[in-house]
Backbone:
């Protein structure tokens, strides 16, 4: 059986730093994998390597049994929204449309009518359609994050890859992103890097712990000793399947 | 002045070159502003001085020397930055003064009287030759053709290079094209405002346009128009008051940007108080 994503003995050196060592990872169809680990543990490096932006020093990365370099455009990538230049003159609709440019290197690229309709549907699905003409600087963090998810969906990816999608978002925006991802997971495989333990405990199907090496890969039943190994110190345990609500629900008038 | 325009060819050249330079500036200025390449462009412009010196030294048209130097500088900084991970700022600083140093050395080595350099340093729109004009037309056709033809790709690249690469766009080509176009634009601007004043012409029209629009294409068009308006205005003032044209163009640009900012702030405050 071919896996959606398969990493075989991947090593990456980054400026003579051994960033990833001997990573083996298999992701199956419709999986929802969270990659957790301390800062500097190589999470971003792993993402970049999977995306084909960094070449591994050794090892193989396969997407549906094909090498990554040959199957560009099959991954929907959602970068961290906080890294963006929010002043860039571009509207929500334009950002989502960028996804349709995959593998288009010919001049006078135009969007098809069908694509434009599809973009509208994606924006409606993500509840950002009413914002479509806004410049991205006029959005909240959570809204911008959904716009970036929309752009990734326009690529029509088989695999969605997210880099800390809920970092620096407030609780309600986090919940919204969680709901969106939960819904999308019915149709596609999702891999995300995260520090968000509430996400890991509530709806992620598998987790991988990364700190240069991949320590654990499986169901999100973390024991204290695994987490201790990854983070180098004991951290809070997470109960699986318990959704905690810290703030009260808003009452509608 | 109208009568003189019809009578003197040098005035016709000046007006045409103001228009062509502004179109190139509007488009490339927007790109460098959004991609944070302003200091890089300043560095390329100053490196071009080395080429001008070399032109005098080996006896070719100095502007061709500038062309070679600025393209080498643009691609060189980019390449070294990628290979060695040296900060782009450091490299720009180095190329910036290396270019000037080479220029001075070449001119010192050139036998005979030292040539008149101020028209390259500060520009002189009234001495634009036919050949300069042809060069401007060629560069403009290239810029409008390439950026217009690949507009969507450029937008994707300028907004988020990483994502563009992930969806299979050839971002390394786009990057090289951008650097070459910057170098070409700088070369044609040297005749109009000079090496030292180029940065103003590349940034102020875009800054003004950005006050009025959030659309990349509109900003490019608007900043070209703003550039044309102020280049002609500066030219008119310089003709009227008999002052250097490069200086009058740059000063009128910067003053009008400040006025626009002040007016916009007043309007905003007015709205808030209501």
Residues:
């Amino acid at each position: 059986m071919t896996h959606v994503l398969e990493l075989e003995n991947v090593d990456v050196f980054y400026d003579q730093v051994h960033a990833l060592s001997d990573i083996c990872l298999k992701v199956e169809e419709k999986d929802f994998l969270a990659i957790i680990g301390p800062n500097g543990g190589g999470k971003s490096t792993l993402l970049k390597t999977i995306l084909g932006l960094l070449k591994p020093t050794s090892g193989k990365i396969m997407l549906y049994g094909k090498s990554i370099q040959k199957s560009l455009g099959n991954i929907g990538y959602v970068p961290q929204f906080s890294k963006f230049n929010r002043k860039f003159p571009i509207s929500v609709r334009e950002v989502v449309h960028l996804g349709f440019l995959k593998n288009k290197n010919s001049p006078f690229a135009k969007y098809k009518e069908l694509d434009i309709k599809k973009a509208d549907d994606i924006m409606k699905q993500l509840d950002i359609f009413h914002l479509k003409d806004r410049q991205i600087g006029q959005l909240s963090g959570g809204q911008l994050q959904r716009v970036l998810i929309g752009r990734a969906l326009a690529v029509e990816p088989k695999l969605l890859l997210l880099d800390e999608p809920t970092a620096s978002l407030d609780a309600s925006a986090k919940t919204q992103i969680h709901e969106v991802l939960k819904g999308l997971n019915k149709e596609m495989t999702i891999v995300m890097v995260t520090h968000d333990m509430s996400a890991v405990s509530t709806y992620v199907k598998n987790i991988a712990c990364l700190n240069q090496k991949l320590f654990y890969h499986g169901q999100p039943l973390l024991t204290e000793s695994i987490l201790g190994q990854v983070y180098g110190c004991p951290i809070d345990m997470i109960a699986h399947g318990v959704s905690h609500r810290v703030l009260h629900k808003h009452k509608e008038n | 002045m109208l009568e003189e325009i019809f009578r003197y060819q040098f005035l016709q050249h000046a007006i045409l070159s103001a228009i062509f330079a502004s179109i190139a500036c509007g488009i490339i200025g927007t790109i460098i502003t959004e991609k944070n390449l302003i200091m890089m462009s300043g560095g390329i412009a100053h490196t071009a001085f080395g080429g001008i010196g070399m032109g005098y030294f080996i006896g070719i048209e100095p502007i061709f020397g500038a062309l070679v130097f600025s393209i080498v500088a643009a691609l060189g900084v980019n390449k070294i930055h990628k290979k060695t991970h040296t900060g782009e700022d450091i490299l720009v600083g180095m190329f910036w003064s290396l270019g000037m140093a080479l220029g001075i050395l070449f001119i010192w080595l050139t036998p005979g009287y030292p040539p008149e350099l101020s028209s390259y340093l500060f520009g002189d729109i009234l001495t634009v030759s036919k050949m300069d004009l042809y060069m401007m037309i060629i560069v403009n056709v290239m810029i409008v053709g390439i950026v217009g033809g690949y507009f969507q790709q450029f937008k994707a690249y300028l907004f988020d290079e990483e994502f563009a690469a992930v969806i299979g766009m050839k971002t390394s080509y786009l990057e090289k094209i951008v650097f070459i176009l910057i170098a070409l634009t700088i070369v044609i601007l040297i005749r109009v405002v000079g090496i030292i004043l180029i940065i103003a012409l590349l940034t102020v029209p875009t800054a003004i346009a950005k006050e009025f629009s959030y659309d990349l294409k509109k900003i490019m068009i608007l900043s070209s128009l703003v550039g044309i308006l102020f280049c002609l205005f500066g030219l008119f003032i310089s003709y009227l008051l008999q002052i250097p044209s490069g200086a009058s163009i740059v000063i009128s640009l910067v003053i009008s940007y400040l006025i626009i900012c002040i007016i916009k702030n007043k309007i905003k405050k007015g709205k808030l108080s209501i």
